[in-house]
Amino acid sequence: MNLHEYQAKRLFADYGVPILPGKPATTPDEAAAHAEALGGSAWLVKAQVHAGGRGKAGGVKFVKTIAEVRAAAKALLGTQLVTKQSGPGGQPINCVLVDSAAQIAHELYLGALVDRSSKRVTFMASRAGGMDIEEVAAITPEKIFTVKVEPVLGLQDYQTRRLGFALELNEAQRKQLATILKGLYRLFIDKDISLLEINPLAILTDGSLAALDGKINVDDNALYRQSIADWRDPSQEDEKERRAKEFDLNYVTLDGNIACMVNGAGLAMATMDIIKLSGGEPANFLDVGGGTTAERVAEAFKIICSDPNVKAILVNIFGGIVRCDLIATGIIAAVKEIGVSVPVVVRLEGTNVNEGKRLLAESKLAITSADELSDAARKVVAAAGGGK
User: Fold this and answer.
1) How far apart are CA 350 and CA 336, in angstroms?
2) What's the rounded mean pLDDT across residues 306-334?
3) What is the dihedral of CA 121, 185, 206, 13, to 10 degrees?
4) Is a pLDDT exceeding 80 seen at residue 126?
5) What pLDDT, on a 0 to 100 scale, did the predictor assign at position 369?
6) What is the spatial distance between Cα 124 and Cα 25, in angstroms, rounded to a whole number?
7) Residues near 111 by beta carbon (within 8 Å), at least 6 away in sequence
8) 93: helix, coil or strand?
9) Cis peptide before 200, with omega less than 30 degrees from 0?
10) Would residue 109 show up in a list of annotated catalytic residues for this protein?
11) Angstrom distance (rounded) from CA 369 to CA 357
12) Which of 222, 303, 324, 362 yields a CA-CA distance of 20 to 30 A from 153?
């Protein structure tokens, strides 16, 4: 689950990470009122979307009058912001954050994530803040410094000092950085975070540090025990992916025109690969899981058919935990219920495969059976008109 910047900063403040005053607004008048309440002579009006690169895309406005605050909010709210990290349709702007402008002396980068190779929470820091950190890592990796936290011991003082010296901070700033890092580590553990970024962590002209931006991703598997699960913003999520989550389906929208419905993530990846190899383009990743039921198959078909780009559907099921005849029953019921109008190719293998194929054949529906995955891929690509 992704959080908006204003939500991330709310958590930062709770864990002792310094931020500048700011308030979210959903109307131009509310934005103007927040700016008046904050005081000062300059503000930032920042689009709240789940996509990076907002500044370059025009989603961050620097303004110097209340009238400009209102105008900036009016220009952003209700529009779609297209960034290098969003889809071509962009993300809807339903909220803006009105922040006090900062007097910045230098911009740093600070982040934390779970490093799968070492199985440790790892902090990353760089003097090259305010930039695309992926570009910094690719071109000048020596500018990024890391420390890995031993889970039994927690973040140690020597590790915070190591990052402080690497960032060329003075003694007072190193002490403040230590407080920030320890607060962020507690936040990371307490809220089951998978990724945390502050870009930039600014050195202000008075010498102090402050988080001027914030990005937080929370582990979906832990949301059942987190009160911040209520902070999810469904408007920022793909509608088909959101519906899939409600039925425990693993779904990701892609750009092609051949829909895939598979049980098992590895088999789903292989299915998409062989579609590409056969000259087609997959329209989605859809793993219905090992405990597939007829109801979930029907819902999967509904989600697939809601994509207007889909020209054909490939169902590739390996019956192990679930029997092929049950899957066939679900496919038949789904096709009848939804009235699927595009070609459907089904490849079944595993438990009760012959019974499953018999049910499909006797259904008298426009369903094409395939014996092997390569055969299924060729048939579905041909049915889709030769691919994307």
Assistant:
1) 24
2) 84
3) 130
4) yes
5) 86
6) 32
7) 123, 124, 125, 133, 195, 196, 197, 198, 199
8) coil
9) yes
10) yes
11) 7
12) 222
pLDDT tens digits along 160-197: 999 999 999 999 999 999 999 999 999 999 999 999 99
- Total Cβ atoms within 10 A of residue 206: 8
Tokens of 24: 């979210």
| Residue 5 C-alpha from the chain's centroid | 14
Q: Burial letters for 146-181: b for 16+ Cβ neighbours within 10 Å, e otherwise?
A: bbebeeeeebeeebbebbbebbebeeebbebbbebb
Token reading at 202:
């600014």
User: Residue 382 contacts by C-beta under 8 Å, 6 or more apart in sequence?
Assistant: none
For residue 274, which of 345, 366, 380 has the smallest C-alpha distance? 380
Active-site option among 6, 107, 109, 281: 109
The whole-angstrom separation of Cα 179 and Cα 157 is: 10
Give residue-wise pLDDT tens across range 223-266. 999 999 999 998 888 778 877 887 778 888 888 999 998 888 88
52-68 pLDDT per residue, tens: 888 888 999 999 999 99
- Which residue out of 197, 251, 281, 299 is catalytically annotated? 197
Sequence-distant (≥ 6) Cβ neighbours of residue 316 within 8 angstroms: 260, 261, 262, 267, 271, 347, 373, 376
**Mean pLDDT (the chain, rounded):** 90
Which of 39-53, 289-303, 304-318 has the highest mean predicted lDDT (pLDDT)?
Answer: 39-53
* Res 158 pLDDT > 90: yes
C-alpha–C-alpha distance, residues 156 and 120, integer Å: 14
3-class DSSP string for 145-199: EEEEECCCCCCCHHHHHHHHHHCCCCHHHHHHHHHHHHHHHHHHHHCCEEEEEEE
Is residue 241 flagged as an active site residue?
Answer: no
